[in-house]
Amino acid sequence: MEYRVNLKIYEGPMDLLIDLIKKNEIDIYDIPIHIITEQFLEYIKEANKINLELTSEFILMASTLIEIKSKMLLPKIKISEEEEDDEEDPRDSLVQKILEYEKYKDISEILKESHNYEAKAFYKLQEDFTNIDDIDLLKNCDVNSLAKSFKNIINKLKSENIIAEIKQESFSIEEATSVLKNKIGKTGKILFTDLLSESPIIEEIISFFLSVLELVKVGYIKAYQEDDYQDIKLLIREENSFE
């Protein structure tokens, strides 16, 4: 049967060899080495005609196939039944290399798919509050001090059994911002704890705290403390008082 190799570009000789095995529907454990060798050499010959550059690995594989073919053509000297059965098949080494290559090829494809999946994922970047300066946070109050005060507020509410244990519906930062703007818009100033409901859940307290940081960041309010770890006082900026 005449066979003409489709001259597509292969990454290496193993890819060509596996492609030939699949196209001929060959059992990998019983490769007709003379057919595969002829087709492999035909590919190299056609590649040279069109000046397709092949790596030295293709020539090395061709030499290996020719060597295996030669060994297969040598007559077997039968001394005994047991010795004939134990004789090593010249193709065994090649079969093992093909199986190992396919295994690593499959692993490579899995890793590639995993990489492509990760590349499509989007992650929210950490909020940057470095532009909150001493004008926004009065009396040398910085973000770290606010965080410590926030932790102190939670501990105090827990000790007084004010924080609700029963889970409620989630309380978003958007909801917290709306409540904060509404309350501070009426008086111009407010304590952080005055924002909270009678039995706030942790999610509500966190949402209000993040809302405070965001509104300070965009210049809508100012935050300060009279003493370390005390309640956080919020003050609306004058330019936002008449919104």
From TrEMBL:
The reply to whether Cytoplasm figures as a keyword in the UniProt entry is: yes
- Can the keyword Cell division be found in this entry's annotation? yes
Matching InterPro entries: ScpA, ScpA-like_C
Q: Tell me the keywords, alphabetical order.
A: Cell cycle, Cell division, Chromosome partition, Cytoplasm
Where does the protein end up?
Cytoplasm
Q: Quick one: where is this thing mainly located?
A: cytoplasm
Q: What does this protein do?
A: Participates in chromosomal partition during cell division. May act via the formation of a condensin-like complex containing Smc and ScpB that pull DNA away from mid-cell into both cell halves.
- Record-stated family: Belongs to the ScpA family.
Assembly and interactions? Component of a cohesin-like complex composed of ScpA, ScpB and the Smc homodimer, in which ScpA and ScpB bind to the head domain of Smc. The presence of the three proteins is required for the association of the complex with DNA.
Name of this chain's protein: Segregation and condensation protein A
Q: Give the organism the record lists.
A: Peptoniphilus stercorisuis
Q: Which gene encodes it?
A: scpA
